[in-house]
From TrEMBL:
It comes from Hymenobacter telluris. This is Immunity protein 35 domain-containing protein. It comes from the Bacteria.
Amino acid sequence: MSREEAIQLAQIYLAQEDQNHPLALDKLRMLNSPTEYGGYWYFDYRYHHPDKLPDESRDMIGGAPGFVIAKHGKQIRVITWNELYELNQVPIQF
């Protein structure tokens, strides 16, 4: 799968997430540039906070760091912080 195909799939995935699991009104999902790891494309979760949100509140989002798209099979899966750390060393199982 090419980088461009991964970006298209990620855009579709984020649009579906926006519909199925909308964020609070003070946060907007944004697509980040992918990172290639072996058989996967990794995307960080990125959020836009409108200027009205105080700076100290902007860093209070926790949870999963991002998601991967398998190059073969095109499955999308949210990964944990530990999986992100190990991404270069151990293949992720779908």
